[in-house]
Amino acid sequence: MLNTTPDQIRAARKALRWTLADLGQRAGVDTSTVSRLESSTALEACAEALRQAGVSFEQGCVVVLKR
After folding, report:
1. Cα–Cα distances in Å, from 58 out to 36, 51, 63?
2. CB–CB of 30/22 below 8 Å?
3. Can you give the pTM of this predicted structure?
4. Which class for 38: exposed (0-12), middle (13-18), buried (19 or more C-beta within 10 A)?
5. Distance of CA 35 to the CA centre of its chain
6. CA-to-CA distance for 28 and 6, rounded, in angstroms?
7. Domains of the chain
8. Angle between the 20-27 and 6-15 helix axes, to the nearest 10 degrees?
9. Phi, psi (deg, nearest 5) at residue 47
10. Which of 6, 28, 43, 50 has its CA 20 to 30 A from that of 61?
11. Each residue of 31-62: pLDDT tens digit?
12. Is the CB of residue 18 less than 8 Å from the CB of residue 31?
C-alpha cells in the first residue's frame, strides 16, 4: 500500500500540467474521483469515521481494529 498524500497527488499532477480529467483518464477513474482523492478534507473525514468505529492507524501501514 502506498503512503501517498492528497497534496502529493495534486502536486504531481500539477507538475505534469495535467488536469483532473487528464489524470482521471490515465488512471481509469472519473474526474470527480480524482477531485475527491485530492481533497485532504475528504481523506481526513473518512479516517475520522473509521477511528470513531474503532480503527486505529499505527506507524507504517498497520491498521488495528479495537473491540
Report:
1. 24, 11, 6
2. no
3. 0.66
4. buried
5. 10
6. 18
7. 6-65 (1.10.260)
8. 100
9. -60, -40
10. 28
11. 999 998 888 777 778 788 888 888 887 776 67
12. no
